[in-house]
Write a structure and sequence with these properties.
12 helices, two-stranded antiparallel ribbon, about 45% helix, alpha+beta, Bactericidal permeability-increasing protein, domain 1, Serine Threonine Protein Phosphatase 5, Tetratricopeptide repeat
């Protein structure tokens, strides 16, 4: 028998199937669902995150005046990750409808429009976000991406048009080549010698070696060939690096070979992985209790996302969107325990704090769990603010590159 429960196989079926009737119970369920949705997103479980955000939206829609714009923006982000671009665009528009200043909605709307090849609309959306938050460099990145993609699209279409024209010409030439040959023209005497010239070969001439060639072909003498070889024309030459006087200033901070300052992009994920693993491991918070002890970060794992620096039209732009796990351990007296901090949405956007989710390993003793509750989970004290402050320093260093 097939189950009629659409969430029966989902690990969040308990909350997804819950259907409270009074408003207080609905709001409590919304808080739980939102918490689980963030966790699902941090674990890359996009289907569950989409269902959970949808549940929160549905619950709040049933309470007059309780809609939250952020829920639509978050679901748009999830749907972009799932490739549901049209639905992500709908969520972005709904978010903007509820809160016209919600900056992330314009970013996600522009992303969706770029994927839909709606270049002009994407530029409009990004510029609107740029008006609201001029310091947000990501919007200029989106504008540049849309303009470059639009230009490439126009170039591709023009090439297809030229190729189609070439095909038509070739077909025409092939059809005319099948026409029956005309009457062969008579050979005539030159009168000066015994050689005969075929009138059908007009436009051609005979070279010194007896071969036929175009009338406009010019033979190069041995002397001319020797001069060309001496000058080195026609041979590839190695480009030399900067002179001892120092490299010339490159427009937009691009490479030495991009003097014109045209578009150039450099991947930075290697730098991110090496630097984050070096700087975020070993952060330590001493527990202010009589029994003594400390909490420290032990490893950085699962670094994922994008990091690249582009140079376009004389401007450098830094793209960053990261997620990673921070393993931590604590010793309290003779007891010890471990856990993980899942960090996501690390960007260069000002005032956009990363999302944080804490997970404590199952074997951690109760006494150590209490320490984690007091000095890891709170955003205002303990290990977490130390970690977030160091992440912000790394982001600022990245923006200076």
């Amino acid at each position: 028998m097939i189950s009629s429960n659409p969430f029966g196989n989902n690990r969040h079926a308990d909350v997804l199937n819950e259907d409270p009737t009074d408003d207080d119970a609905k709001l409590r369920l919304v808080a739980e669902v939102k918490h689980r949705a963030k966790g699902a997103f941090g674990q890359k479980d996009m289907p569950s995150a989409e269902l959970l955000y949808g549940k929160a939206i549905k619950l709040l829609d049933s309470i007059p005046g309780k809609s939250e714009a952020a829920l639509y923006s978050n679901r748009a982000m999830v749907r972009l990750n799932m490739g549901k671009v049209e639905q992500a665009l709908e969520d972005s528009n709904k978010c903007i409808e509820l809160d016209g200043t919600f900056i992330k909605a314009y970013h996600r709307k522009a992303q969706a429009l770029i994927r839909l090849n709606e270049w002009d609309d994407a530029i409009v959306a990004a510029k609107k976000g740029q008006e609201i938050e001029p310091s947000n460099a990501f919007f200029q990145e989106l504008i540049d991406n849309a303009e470059n993609a639009k230009a490439k699209d126009l170039e591709d279409k023009a090439k297809l048009k030229r190729d189609a024209q070439d095909v038509r010409v070739e077909l025409h030439n092939a059809s005319t080549a099948r026409a029956p040959p005309g009457k062969k023209e008579k050979k005539v005497e030159t009168g000066d010698n015994d050689d005969e010239s075929d009138i059908s070969m007009r436009g051609y001439k005979t070279r010194a070696d007896g071969k036929k060639t175009s009338y406009f072909h010019t033979d190069i003498s041995d002397e001319a060939k020797q001069l060309i070889e001496q000058q080195g024309y026609g041979k590839p030459h190695k480009l030399e690096g900067p002179t001892e006087a120092g490299p010339a200033e490159v427009k937009g901070g691009g490479s030495q070979w991009n003097q014109a300052g045209t578009y150039e992009e450099r991947g930075m994920m290697k730098w991110v992985e090496d630097t984050f693993k070096q700087r975020l491991v070993g952060l330590k918070f001493d527990i202010p209790t009589g029994c003594g002890g400390s909490i420290s970060t032990s490893a950085i794992e699962n670094i994922k996302g994008d990091a690249n620096i582009s140079c376009s039209r004389g401007k450098r732009r830094h793209l960053l969107d990261l997620s990673f796990d921070v393993q931590f351990t604590a010793t309290v007296g003779d007891a010890s325990g471990t856990g993980k901090i899942a960090i996501s949405e690390v960007t260069t956007v000002a005032d956009d704090a990363p999302d944080v989710k804490i997970e404590v390993d199952g074997g951690t003793p109760a006494a150590v769990r209490e320490v984690f509750d007091a000095f890891v989970k709170p955003a205002g004290q303990g290990l977490q603010p130390l970690l977030l402050a160091e992440i912000q320093k790394l982001v600022e260093e990245y923006k200076d590159k």
